[in-house]
Amino acid sequence: MARNVAFDLNHPHMEAGLESPIDEEGVHDSFSQLIAEQSQNGGASDSDAFELQELQRQLDEEERDNVAFLSGPGREFQGRRQRDAEWEDADTQAVPLIGERWSSATLKILSSMPSRTIGRNRGAIISQYYNRTMQLRRRRQSRPAIRDFSHSARPSIRGYGIETDSADAEVSKRDRLVNNLQNLSVSDRIRMLRAMPLNVSEKSELRSLALQKEKHTLSRRIPCCSQLKYYIINGARQGWYSWLSFLHSLHLWQVPLKRVSGRFGSGVLSYFLFLKTLLFFNVFLFLVTGAFMVLPQELHPPEPSAGRPSFTGLELLTGAGYFSDTVMYYGYYCNYTLRKSCRDDGGVHNVSLSNGTMPDCVSKHLSYNMPLAYFFTIGVSSFLTCIILVYSMSKSFGQSFRIDKSHSILAIKTFCSWDFKVIKKSSVKLMSENICTQFKELLAEVSHKQVKNTRCQRLWRLMVHGLAWAICVASTTACVLAIFYCSSYMHKNLQFFLRSGVPVTNPQLNEASLLALPVLVSLINLLLPGLFNLAAWMEDYESPSVRTYVSIGRNLMLKVSVLGVLCYHWLGRVAADPTTIGLKCWETFVGQELYRFLLMDFIFTILDTLFGEFLWRLFSEKVLKRRRKPVFDIARNVLELIYGQTLAWLGVLFTPVLPAVQILKLLLLFYIKMSSVMMNCQAPRKPYRVSQMTTVFITLLCFPSFLGASVCVTYTMWSITPSSSCGPFRELKTMFQAGKRWVEELEKDNPNLSVLARAHSYLVENPFFLFVGAGIFLIVIYFHSQVVDGQRKIIGLLQEQIENEGDDKKFLITRLQTIHEQKRTPARRLASQNSNC
């Protein structure tokens, strides 16, 4: 009778069998090479032939139904049968294949499979990689044949009867392997050590032995000067690695981000990572505009205007008054070429290109065309930002929209997530919390099951969703109409004061009244997301990630609508006829408006953090006597960041210093939000993994935000007439004529540059080029997404094929056992009849 199989995990051979090489295909190939050498060498020893004959003889023995051959030559396994039988039944229920009553022939066939014979002992591993290193060495000597090695140096190809390597043989194999590693290049040596299925300490020991022998050999063979050069190169290499490690340690906000990831998961972490991304975008924009616009104009300031107001402090809120006549706004920049003239006293002063002051001296110095620099700086910075955004979005698509089943990622996190280089207690604690939170998210996704609802339940949920969306759309429409009529009222009020001719008695009060529209918009942005959350609570979404995405969509609808009304107010009312409200420089007024909106958005975000999170936590703990804390609203906070960044991109044309204000805002916002999250918020009650959240954020930043801001800026530069009394584009019909005038001057000075003039007319002045460029970017994104989608499908098919092959193996093993039992049954009946007779 066949017996059940109990695998003794405490057996030393079983422990060795748990370690298998990473590159199994290469190991199988090397085993095949060893067997091929054995078959090709006609003069093989008699012991080898005897070994194979013994293997065949033991496989053909059907009467000996004993599983001791599966584990090795030790006989202590037979003495443990009674103890193994006690826990045998419990394990057989968990694994169906193990629970079958296999015969000894089936077990021996299974034990001789390559996946069961590889990595059984350490000597086989060292021998295997000794052969690999011999192949990599490009020396005169060839690899020795298999007959040149002892039995202990050969990988075992049997599923049982594995010979235990002696200490001397293992040391000799280690020495040969170290010698081969020493003769390899650095890259091949590192690659070979990484592929070895040994623990980290043994790999480090092999590496140190190879390096010691290499140093000893070099010290004996290399002359003194060459040794000095060798040590200098090694020292420079170590210094470079140390410098790279130091630069890696300077990454911004590493420890706080790890702390947030460990306590709150990937959802809250994605918000702070997105904030960090926006900070880098604004740093880049500030460096470009500061180097090519702000700094040259600050070094060559124009003549100060008469009657400049003094600083009162209200300018910090309104952005007007004292700040109006500074490099902060468009109207301060000059419309001539900045030059340095020669004076007897060594001083310098600015000269205009148009009046031709001191031509004999001006021609000897460099000039800087401010209108051209202003025009091309805005254009080039927007183009580079677009390229960075598209690249970031494509990279994020490739990283997030891939096959990442929770079961497979769970195994990877279990065995491969720990970084053994971490030794500090604080870092170990952070990593432990991070891995624990990731496990919670993965397990929540694995255990999540789709609930099947009845028709009545689905109809009810559909009605609830429709009602919630109707409430959200109606409230958004009402708020947008309120903003539209408020802006129209303020515009008409300015026109009334201008026509009535009533003198302004209190300029500061009149300046403070300009804050009414930004306060109204910020108040709507603060309160309306609370209504959206109430509607989401009414819908009762089962998946927290779905609820987050729905909230993002509703907040995005609000922000886009508000920005659309504001852009119409600035470009359709103020810029269309600025004289009706008494504006001499409408670009400066629009820049001040954008500064006020950005500042009010920051102030109301701080108020929301104070009242919505801090005071609510105190009220819940002190009054309600509950330990529940508010959950961080990812959707609302992320859309607030996108809203503020859109204002910054819109305002860079009218307020070149606005990226610096945005940088200061983001820095303060990070530390305030970080402190508030750690003190006042709690992790979501239902952990969920947000694998595509960063991709969604980058996509929203690119298409609704940057694309909308680029359209508005391009429309302003192409179609709207600049102010005639301020700014670098005064006395021009459009801002694009600055580039056209510069090209005409170049063509006039040098007729050979007529090609440049035609290229400018076709590529810059013609909007077709802009649409073609945008279309190319969209096509690139589309093709990249299609490639990623194709890769996802291929990976899905491969995973399905792996599962099918596993089922096929189970089926074949079961059929093998069935056929074996059918063949043994008549033999047993005949044997029983003979015994009865």
From TrEMBL:
The keyword Coiled coil belongs to this UniProt entry's keyword annotation: yes
Membrane topology: Multi-pass membrane protein
Domain TMC: 585-691
Example GO molecular function: mechanosensitive monoatomic ion channel activity
Coiled-coil parts of chain: 45-72
UniProt cross-references to PANTHER family, sorted A to Z: TRANSMEMBRANE CHANNEL-LIKE PROTEIN 6, TRANSMEMBRANE CHANNEL-RELATED
Name of this protein: Transmembrane channel-like protein
Source organism per UniProt: Pogonophryne albipinna
